[in-house]
Amino acid sequence: MNVYDSERMADMLIPLGYTITDSPDHADMVILNTCHIREKAEQKVFSDLGRLRDKRDERRTRGADTVIVVSGCVAQAEGAEIIRQAPYVDIVVGPQTYHRLPEMIAKATRAVHKTKKPGQKKGLGIVDVDFPVESKFDSLPQTAESRVAAYLSIQEGCDKFCTFCVVPYTRGAEYSRPATEILAEARHLLSLGTKEITLLGQNVNAYHGQAPLGTEWGLGRLIRELADLGVDRIRYTTSHPRDMNQDLIDAHRDVPALMPFLHLPVQSGSDRILEAMNRKHTSRTYIDIIERLRNARPDMGLSSDFIVGFPGETDKDFEETLALVHHVKYAQSYSFKYSIRPGTPAGAMDDQVPEEVKADRLQQLQDLLNEQQLTFNQKTVGTVQSVLLDRKGRQEGQFIGRSPYMQSVVVNAPDRLFGQVIDVRINQAHPNSVSGTVVTHEV
Ligand code: 5AD
Ligand code: SF4
Fold this sequence. Notes:
Layout: H1 2-13, E1 29-34, H2 39-61, E2 67-72, H3 73-78, H4 80-85, E3 91-93, H5 101-115, E4 126-128, H6 136-139, E5 149-153, E6 155-156, H7 167-170, E7 175-176, H8 179-191, E8 196-200, E9 208-211, E10 215-218, H9 219-229, E11 233-237, H10 246-254, E12 261-263, H11 271-276, H12 283-296, E13 301-308, H13 315-328, E14 332-337, H14 355-379, E15 384-392, E16 398-402, E17 408-412, E18 421-429, E19 433-438
Parallel strand pairs: 1-2, 2-3, 3-4, 5-8, 8-11, 12-13, 13-14, 17-19
Antiparallel strand pairs: 6-7, 9-10, 15-16, 15-18, 16-17, 18-19
The protein binds 5'-deoxyadenosine and iron/sulfur cluster.
């Protein structure tokens, strides 16, 4: 979601004359788009800001200046507190108000011209972390640049209030964009040459958007309509087990453009911990969903998020997580140590798990998940996979693309195949990727 927001901010600023630069050394403006999900991500913001201030001061000695913007969920959660801790910040803008950035920047640049002094320490102190009534989507411009693999935000916010999570507080209540708006944006992306669309939302499968003739569509229906528009590859993320309805599962059976891969976070394998997390599903109901998905699409690749060391988690609870992982066999996964988030119910629970125990459990879990990922990758060796080449590799002539199962596939290919879906024979499996050779190259 943050990548999507960053792209939209760039789309908005390009018409104002900004271009993207790869180093803050040359930047007239730096936007730090931040994440608040775990403490580590938040701490990084303040160390990065300190470095940006030094860069800005150095540019000032050369007669230039840098506007410093903090956006995203740390901005939303901390608001004016950011300015208190880092007074040199010019603009603080939340995820629901970044469509107002052009006005704020106009204000900031006017002020910078008036007040610019090398010794000036304070920033402009503009803060906008509203949850406005108007939807930011109504004001965002259409995507300006062509992207072979594009994100399309269809849903935002969350009403689930898992006890560990800040998202309902920073991203606000659940909201689904109207289906006609989404289809129009998809048509626009197709006209720019997009081959793959990833539908985004904090609770993407809770999607229930207004549709033509006063009806409402769920995610399954939306996916079918997008496939009918001619989108080659469709993905969606992130889903909650509670919203995995039959129509969506059926779409995995019926829609060839829907990729056979699903990120479905389970968080824990212990029903006791799942209850304390307020997940409202059990390990059994989760496994049932996985079985139904595999019935619909036998080759389905799966991924999940896991939290170890949630308050009160015992060795037995953790063993149950390992048992669930053994049972499901994931293609890839993300796992984290529980991190106390301010204002969340779990943050106030008294049976917090010691750091060393969390670290030890994380290591065990990651060893198992890495082993499963390698096994998954090894199983694709010798097969031919359709791969959308969407990134340049490290070496000359090398490209990286995604297999249907979200594996990173490294391949040598001529430049003209960039942005194409091609067939690749997989020759080698690595822990985080596979490599192969091009089978077809007719374009
Ligand atoms: N501590 C650790 N991990 C967390 N996540 C969310 N909140 C926390 C937290 N307080 C993880 C969950 C979620 C993913 C995006 O981040 O696993 O699915
Ligand atoms: Fe956070 Fe996801 Fe739970 Fe919502 S459903 S509170 S976003 S973990």
